[in-house]
Amino acid sequence: MEQASDIVVASRAALAQLAALAVQYSFSIVGALLLLFVGWIASGMLSRWAFRGLSRIHGIDVTLAHFFSNVIRYAVLVLVFVMVLGQFGVQTASILAALGAIGLAIGLALQGTLQNIAAGIMLLVLRPFRVGEYIDTGNINGIVQDIGLFATELKTYDGLYRLAPNSLLWNVPVTNYSRLATRMHDFKVGIAYEDDIDKALAIMLDIVRKDDRVLDTPEPSAFVMDLGDNSVVLALRYWANSSVWWMTSRDITKAVKEAFDSQGITIPYPQVTYHAPPGDSGPPALLQMSDEPDSART
Question: Does the pTM of the predicted model rise above 0.70?
Fold first, then answer.
């Protein structure tokens, strides 16, 4: 009987303690639930407002707007979680210190990935290239298909898919062949020293002036570039729209070759001229290579 009475007394004491704890923490639980509810709604609203505001800024990419809006949302949620723990008497200072240590460890572990993210943000903000433009960094070239936070997708001229980490595109000089509306073609060709230079220059200028794709301003020009060992080097400079530059330059090169052939202008091969002194019969004969043994040669 005494044991039963002790059990009853202990049970009543436990229930009384639980009731006291329930009353003590009821306000904390209600406050925590309210904080979670309000924080969830506030984080979503702030994220949407941030996305709309960033989208209105000229030069901010949609990917970048999504990234910053998500960062704001999760930052608010982390702050709300810390505040909820504070409702139950948890020391938030130690939690913040732990979160900082965890963030530092993650940053060190993902150093390369974070470097790509930082480079991606800079590429999306400064826009050295856009989707659809042809770029060349020396090691990476192609038409930009997509610019992400981690990597950039490109399509090479021969139809291959290439994925380049953003850090490789940000830390090197980038040549953008599509950014500017017009582009110059510097075409060089050599003619024989015996040919008429003025005639050859007139032929080259006549070809580009008849091509509608060649711009009148700046005006095309043709001139003597250099006096080479085997030829007189002529240069032809003209401007065309970047969208048609490639085909225009190829067509002009072909047209110049065909016009020189029809007008008797020679494009010489590399050669050596031998001047024989008086009484010399000519240059020494070239040795002929043979598979025969030395004893069989005469």
Answer: no
Q: Spell 66-93 as b/e; 16+ CB within 10 A means b.
A: bbbbeebbeebbeebbeebebbeeeeee
pLDDT, tens digit, 9 for 90 and up, residues 113-142: 788 888 888 888 888 998 899 999 988 999
Single-letter amino acid code for the residue at 89: G
pLDDT band, residue 230 (cuts 50/70/90)? confident
Check if the beta carbon of residue 84 is closer than 8 Å to that of residue 28.
no
Give the gyration radius of the chain's Cα atoms.
39
* 288 assigned to some structural domain: no
Please tell me the predicted confidence (pLDDT) of residue 202: 95
Whether 13 and 98 map to the same domain: the answer is yes
Residues 190 and 248 in one domain: yes
**pLDDT given for residue 295 in this prediction:** 42
The total number of structural domains that make up the chain? 3
Chosen domain end from 161, 176, 191: 176
Q: Which residues form the domain of 96? A: 7-109
Are 165 and 174 contacting, i.e. CB atoms less than 8 angstroms apart? no
